[in-house]
Specification:
246 residues; alpha+beta; eight-stranded antiparallel β-sheet; two-stranded antiparallel sheet
Length: 246
């Protein structure tokens, strides 16, 4: 009998592979797993981008507001007693302060009775080209918030700012405080603290985000709603003017 001959009934080796049904089930399961992984990745990526936008807005607001707080606290600083230091312009959208912090050589903080030194006369607000009405609302919906030191041009402080509001607390004759965003000429010298409200917008739109939120400023004014794809954040801070009313 030949070596390869086998008797009837003997088991023969099987060369069967996966069936078509098994392959289809495997492909289907793999597709479901990949779809789930991709969905989770997209969700995490969107969440990361959203958090990045929020963090960027908060950092922008914090940096701009902290800078203003530092300068506003020094408004009215007048050790020589002869400078016209204090608050000069006080409107809802613009604030101009003066402080006598340097001598003519710019090497001392004792004051020299003049207001011609670096950073002794500063105006905060949007440039006129971005806020023609001076109401603190960016005409194009968003603009760069600036400061303008004495005898200098506007210097950028914060990008993508939607609006700013200065709310002033006035000391009345009976010692109580009232607030207004538009103090009269006779009330400017009675300002004791300033409340800053600043609204920032994200740099990029998110097609999957729809706004519509309203924001309430320190004075109680309402900004918005903004039914678009940009995120926004509001910061409200009150500054005590420690050198005013002394």
């Amino acid at each position: 009998m030949a070596m390869n001959d086998r008797k009837p009934g003997m088991n023969t080796p099987r060369n069967d592979g996966f069936t078509l049904v098994e392959l289809m089930i495997t492909v289907l399961l793999a597709s479901l797993i990949m779809a789930a992984v991709y969905t989770a990745y997209l969700s995490m990526q969107r969440s990361y981008l959203a958090q990045e936008q929020v963090s960027e807005m908060q950092q922008t607001l914090r940096a701009a507001v902290d800078m203003m707080v530092r300068e506003i606290r020094m408004a009215g600083y007048n050790p020589a007693g002869s400078a016209n230091a204090g608050i000069v312009t006080a409107t809802a959208g613009q604030l101009q302060i003066r402080k006598d912090i340097t001598n003519t050589a710019g090497t001392s903080e004792d004051g020299d009775g003049a207001l011609d030194g670096p950073n002794e006369d500063i105006t905060f607000g949007f440039a006129p080209a971005d806020d023609a009405g001076g109401d603190g609302m960016a005409d194009a919906g968003v603009a760069t918030f600036s400061q303008q030191p004495f005898a200098a041009g506007f210097q950028d402080m914060a990008e993508n700012i939607v609006a700013v509001e200065f709310n002033y607390f006035i000391e009345e004759n009976n010692g109580s405080l009232s607030s207004t965003t538009s103090p009269s000429a006779g009330q400017v010298d009675k300002i004791r603290s300033i409340q800053i409200s600043m609204l920032a917008r994200s740099d990029r739109a998110d097609p999957r985000f729809t706004g519509g939120q309203q924001f309430v400023t320190g004075s109680g004014a309402t900004w918005g709603p903004y039914p678009d794809n940009f995120r926004r954040r509001l910061m409200v801070t009150t500054v005590q003017c420690r050198n005013l009313g002394l």
